Fold this sequence. Notes:
The protein is mostly helical. It has 19 helices and 7 strands. 36% of the residues are buried.
Amino acid sequence: MTQLTEHSAPLSSAAALERGRAATFTSAVLRGxxxxxxxxxxxxxxxxxxxxxxxxPDSGAGGALRIAAGLWLLGHGVELVRPDTLSGTPAPIGxxxxxxxxxxxxxxxxxxxxxxxxxxxxxxxxxxxAVCTVSGGYLLVGASAVLYVGxxxxxxxxxxxxxxxxVLTVLSAAAGAWTAHGCPRLPLPQGLPGAxxxxxxxxxxxxxxxxxxxxxxxxxxxxxxxxxxxxxLLVGASLVWHGDPAHTSFVQLAGDWSGRVAVLxxxxxxxxxxxxxxxxxxxxPGFALGTTATATPLGVVGTPALPxxxxxxxxxDGPGTPLNWAAAGVPAVAGLAVAWFTVRVAAPPFALREEAxxxxxxxxxxxxxxxxCAGLTAVLAGLAGGPLGSGRLAAFGPVWWLTGAAALAWxxxxxxxxxxxxxxxxxxxxxxxxxxxxxxxxxTGAGERTATATTTGAGSGGAxxxxxxxxxxxxxxxxxxxxxxxxxxxxxxxxxxxGGEAIGGLDILDALDVAEAGAGAGAGGTTGAGAGGTxxxxxxxxxxxTGGTGAxxxxxxxxxFEPYDFLPAESWHERGAREAxxxxxxxxxxxxxxxxxxxxxxxxxxxxxxxxPSLRKGGSDTDENPGGTTP
Length: 631
């Protein structure tokens, strides 16, 4: 009994795992079938709406549904055949509306991506498993649609449908699975020879090679988008130019509003095809208007066989004119786009020459971008064209290999030289711009600077400023109100402090000027920067110095000389200069600062607290400065 109990849990777990795996596969198959049915249903709704609103329906609801299924197959690239024609010969329809192709591709992509989302309690599918199961469910609906349209107005050959229908389905599902796994790097194919594998591992599969391939892919895709966008612009301009023939064709195709809506929807679905045709026209090869005519910028060669349709009314006729030749600007812009998107990574703005790619690497990447653009353009040209009937309409639209070759020639011939020139321009040697030189001040000697400052004493008033008038390095907000004008008198002497001795009539700016003048003096004179020891006696300034080069001479040789940065340290720490600074600070504070004694104590500060008697030398010495006042 115990053995049966012990073995029951693994058996139930394996069965649950099998059931979960089967449920996962079934869910993925149903996702693919649901995606196919959703696309088929969207087209069926539009077709049935047109059939219901049509005043003269040609067939019943079954015929309308068969037409909807045929259009859905046409969106996958399946060539349809119209058996009922006036001549009795079945007419093929191979022009695939590119806008109609986008719907099934997006639905298959979403189905494969959602199938790989983790689901609690179920095993996770692999990428290959998701592609196979989703594509299998999608193709089951496709095969049913092929069989269903066999008796309709638009039929599909089963063998041709089996060759073309899985292509779009599998590619879209593979893209969805690749995206669900985080877009991993694809491994090298195992069937390649060893030499080829090693060469690819050193070039394209190396980190630098992968980055260049990514840059080339982006530049090629951008160039292809510009080509298609330029082609759409050409088509729009031609429609405006040929507005009357387009309107006449639109009115003649349908007389009731439901028919005109159907023609309008078909024209909108064919707009991307017309844009690709315009790109082929601008590239030079143009497009075929049947088996006997071709439209190029140089003119229309042969006799075109054009059915009545508004978009076809925009096809130019006659020989080419300068307006037709201007279409060559579209591939020129595409070639410059290849260069721009390549160099923006190879040599970013303001990059150093050592950080940028080499010229060879830049040229190879631009050339690879041209190859990508040519490949994408050739694929679009092959999808945008096809037969519209038998006989003269058997070839209709651009020739894919001619369009791709022309795109390669334009993008490589313009993109590679433009990329090299743009790289050279961005890596040019940049020199700093010449800075504007300041006007040199007039040279002043040491004697002139010291003579400007007048001796001021403790009791003297109205002393003139010791700084040179209009000192260039002084900001206006630093100048006192009485000193902004030329020749203005300095403020009067300060009020007497508690000691009864007045401070000389110099503020901090005067002290700076005096210190500057004394520092530049060759033979220092008396400047009176400090307060006199006795009342009425001007003190000799410590700001004056003997010997040395004057500041005025220094300014004459160097316009960028800053005197403030080179004031002597001794002049700044003079007792008179400090008193002048404190007095200026007190006056500027508006009475908020406390008064300081005019005669400070000794420069050596006393202890903050009285020392114990045991630590004093002599024991009976008294403090020279009991208050410990420090200026």
